């Protein structure tokens, strides 16, 4: 599903707004039927990545970016120039979430840089093409698909060689507008990434096929139908059960069902008072509670902040789902959308 975009003037500056995502769980980490992973995820309307870029005399990277992120941007630009030809860019990172917190910041930053580069040089590329070139989407396609279209997404896992293909989109449900998501993050921790993540995955026992079947059943017959019918209770129950099941599997690698015991404590307090779908996005440390309304979310936020009042490293906020993908601003630019054909 390529992005359908009009080309701006090659010299026009461009702004890319890429949304954050929550990774809600894998379906089958062990490929018991031949395909590994498969992912459920949700695009949210906060904690996104915004960059401004223009062609320049020399390469420049500035703004709200760490040294590690600056190096990642430089690597992206080197790969893009090798593929499309030399073109120095001046990039200003206007906004970006803290890295390695489970919000998909690495994929969004890479796709934002790739989209800006290819549009500025007059050779627009699809998200899948950019992801392959920039080394994103090896296990999950949620970040790439979320960049394209937003919503509640299900992908089918990468086929064959993980380096060759992006996971296909199997389902996209608009996330109900009235539902909200409480985010609870531990600023003293980072989720597993890089070599540590690869080592952790390699250390895990095979995922039982019966559990993979159970997760698929939950997603296809409870979570997605709940979202489609705006039926919150089964959605929340199914999501919590999915998260508990996959969290127990990853517990030996991350120190528990949740990477942060304090995040877990806060979310369990929220779930004890109201119906909520709770869990952890990716390797954490950010956890979430999906609530049925803004009013429910406000109550959950009050509970969360009360529990976390003596925990200065715990941050709590409420966000909504986002049913659209990345937005592109600039001369003659328009937001990306899915080709219905």
Automatic annotation (TrEMBL):
Q: Does the keyword Kinase apply?
A: yes
Instruction: Check the record and name the InterPro entries matching this protein.
Output: GHMP_kinase_N_dom, RFAP_synthase, Ribosomal_Su5_D2-typ_SF, Ribsml_uS5_D2-typ_fold_subgr
Keyword line: Kinase, Transferase
The keyword Kinase belongs to this UniProt entry's keyword annotation: yes
Q: Which residues form the GHMP kinase N-terminal domain?
A: 76-142
GO MF entries: ATP binding; kinase activity
Q: What is this protein called?
A: Beta-ribofuranosylaminobenzene 5'-phosphate synthase
């Amino acid at each position: 599903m390529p992005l359908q975009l009009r080309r701006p003037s090659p010299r026009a500056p461009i702004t890319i707004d890429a949304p954050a995502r929550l990774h809600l769980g894998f379906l089958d980490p062990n490929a018991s039927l031949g395909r590994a992973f498969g992912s459920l995820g949700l695009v949210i309307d906060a904690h996104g990545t915004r960059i401004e870029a223009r062609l320049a005399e020399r390469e420049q990277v500035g703004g709200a970016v760490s040294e590690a992120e600056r190096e990642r941007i430089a690597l992206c630009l080197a790969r893009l120039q090798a593929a499309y030809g030399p073109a120095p860019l001046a990039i200003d990172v206007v906004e970006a979430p803290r890295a390695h917190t489970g919000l998909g910041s690495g994929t969004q930053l890479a796709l934002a840089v790739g989209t800006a580069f290819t549009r500025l040089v007059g050779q627009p590329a699809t998200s899948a093409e950019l992801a392959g070139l920039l080394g994103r989407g090896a296990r999950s396609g949620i970040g790439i698909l979320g960049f394209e279209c937003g919503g509640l997404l299900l992908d089918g896992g990468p086929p064959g060689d993980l380096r060759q293909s992006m996971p296909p989109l199997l389902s996209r449900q608009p996330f109900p507008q009235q539902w909200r998501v409480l985010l609870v993050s531990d600023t003293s921790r980072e989720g597993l990434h890089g070599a540590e993540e690869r080592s952790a995955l390699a250390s895990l026992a095979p995922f039982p096929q019966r559990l993979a079947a159970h997760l698929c059943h939950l997603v296809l017959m409870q979570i997605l139908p709940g979202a489609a019918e705006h039926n919150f209770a089964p959605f929340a129950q199914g999501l919590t059960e999915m998260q508990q099941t996959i969290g127990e599997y990853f517990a030996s690698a991350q120190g528990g069902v949740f990477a942060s015991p304090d995040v877990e404590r806060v979310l369990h307090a929220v779930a004890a008072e109201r119906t909520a779908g709770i869990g952890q996005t990716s390797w954490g440390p950010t956890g979430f509670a999906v609530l049925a309304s803004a009013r429910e979310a406000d109550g959950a936020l009050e509970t969360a902040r009360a529990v976390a009042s003596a925990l200065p490293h715990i941050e709590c906020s409420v966000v909504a789902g986002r049913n659209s993908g990345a937005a592109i601003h600039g001369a003659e630019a328009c937001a990306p959308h899915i080709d219905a054909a």
